[in-house]
Structure formats: structure tokens, C-alpha cells
Amino acid sequence: MRITVFLRQFVILAAAMLLISSCATLSPNGVGRVRRYTFAEESVPKELDEFKIAFISDLHYPSLFNNKRLGKLVHRLQKESPDILLLGGDYVTDSDSIDVLFESLSAAMPRWNTFAVLGNHDKRNEELIRQAMGKYGIYLLDGVAWCTEFLDIGGGYTVAGVYDSFANDTLFAQYVEQLDDSDFLIFLSHTPDFVERHSITADLAFAGHTHGGQVSLFGLYTPVKNTRYGRRFLRGMNRTTNGTAVITTNGVGTSRRKVRFCVPSEIVIVTLESKKL
């Protein structure tokens, strides 16, 4: 009898430990995890070997992601010391938080620059967000009439971003054709669907919006996906139909409901590795 009770308690404890380890969602250190990728492709020029890219998205500040966690996030980004920082949109839940957020993020201090796009939740505070980004030296990849804009920053690579990844598809046709000109093209979109839908030809794309589902049962069942492609671009690194590698982050904050389950908030760190050395 005692052995049966002991085994039952052991199984419950083991299951609880597995749940905690596999669903490490809420961390006192700002985010649940740092998700690391090594991108080793023939397209990476030798000048970009060991080039480090940090990417965060969907902060929805302040939601579950509060002021204390913001400070921890910035500290972690400083420790990572990336060459560039990418911001994927959906920044705040109210206009009073805009200046606080971008002032804090400006302290992350990547080696080169911080680049950003807007998300669907940013429209109601668009002008204030634009002003804050300009004030704190964050380069908004913007353009006119929802176009893409390119920024050559040396080393044989280009950062391109789309202003409104939910806009009318026909508005992008003339701009998408320009994306083949770069030696190494980094493309930033709020949603991964845009990269697939427009057959974006980039070496590496970054997107958010899905929150990785935000709630999932051990990665097997995710009720809300926020993408028309199901699980295909829900989270992690995947390839589009035309072969573009797109990394979709779980994001940092939460929307609708302040809960995460088995989908940890994250900072994405990508280290480029050249095969041309």
C-alpha cells in the first residue's frame, strides 16, 4: 500500500516537473527564454561571419510584460551585445506607455542600429510611436503607401521592412520585385503570412504576431494561431514555398488574455555563420 502511494506521488511529482520544464513560460527575468539560432548558409558573406541579430516582437507593454520585466529585458539585450536589434511591432497597450518603452529599449545599445516595423495594434497610436522612435534613434522601416524601404548599412547586407503587412496585396507588387538586389537581405514583417503570401525573396526573414499561439498543450494543440497557414509558421524557423527562411517569435507580451501556457516569451538571437571563409 505504501509503495503504491509512493509511486503515485512520484508520478505526480515527475509530471509536475515535466510540465514546469516544458512550459517555462513566466520568468522573473523579463522573458521565459533566449531562443538561439545559428544561420549557416552559402548566402552569408564572410564579412558577416558571427554577426549577431537580436529580435523581439509583440511586447504589448504593459500587459503581462510589465515595467520590472522591461528592465530585465533591456539588461539581457545589453548582455547579448547584438550587432543589430530588430523590433517586430505591437508595442504598447496604451499611449501613456510609449515614451517609457522606447526610452528603455534605446538603452539596449546594439553595435549598429535598431530597426523596427509597425504591427496591427500600433495603428491607434501610430503618430506617437513614430515620434518616440525618432526621438530615441530607432529606425522605422516605413516608406510611402505601405511600401518597403531599404537601408544599406555596409558589410554587404540590407535590412528591409514592410510598413503594414495587412494592407492590400496589390500595393506591394512593384516593391517586392526590388528585394533581389541585396548581397544579403534581412526582411522584417509583423506577420509571417506576408512573407509567404508575397513570395518574398530574402535570405532571412523575421516575424511576430502569432505569439506562438500564446497557449498550447505541450505544443500538440494550439487553440488560437493568428495565421492563415495553421501551424506552418506558428513559431520557430521555417521555410516559405520559395525557400526563404522565416523566424517567427513567440513574442514578449500577451494580448487579449494575460496568460501564457507552454509557449514561453522570448528574445530571439541569431548568429550568422559564413561558409565562404
Helices and strands, with pairings:
Layout: H1 2-22, E1 33-41, E2 52-56, H2 67-80, E3 84-87, H3 98-106, E4 113-116, H4 126-135, E5 139-140, E6 148-152, E7 158-162, H5 173-176, E8 185-188, H6 192-197, E9 204-207, E10 236-239, E11 245-248, E12 266-274
Parallel strand pairs: 1-12, 2-3, 3-4, 4-5, 7-8, 8-9, 9-11
Antiparallel strand pairs: 2-12, 6-7, 10-11
Helix pairs in contact: 3-4
Summarize the structure.
The protein has 277 residues and is an alpha/beta fold. The protein is built from 6 helices and 12 strands.
Name its key features:
alpha/beta; globular; 6-stranded mixed beta sheet; 277 residues; 21% strand
Number of strands: 12
What percentage of amino acids are in beta strands? 15-25%
Approximate shape: globular
Largest sheet: 6 strands, mixed
Global structural class: alpha/beta
Total number of helices: 6
Q: pLDDT average, as an integer?
A: 79
CATH superfamily: Metallo-dependent phosphatases
Secondary-structure element string: HEEHEHEHEEEHEHEEEE
Low-pLDDT segments: 13-26, 143-147
CATH architecture call: 4-Layer Sandwich
**CATH fold group:** Purple Acid Phosphatase, chain A, domain 2
CATH C-level class: Alpha Beta
First-residue to last-residue Cα separation: 66 Å
Q: Can you list the strand order of the major beta sheet?
A: 1-12-2-3-4-5
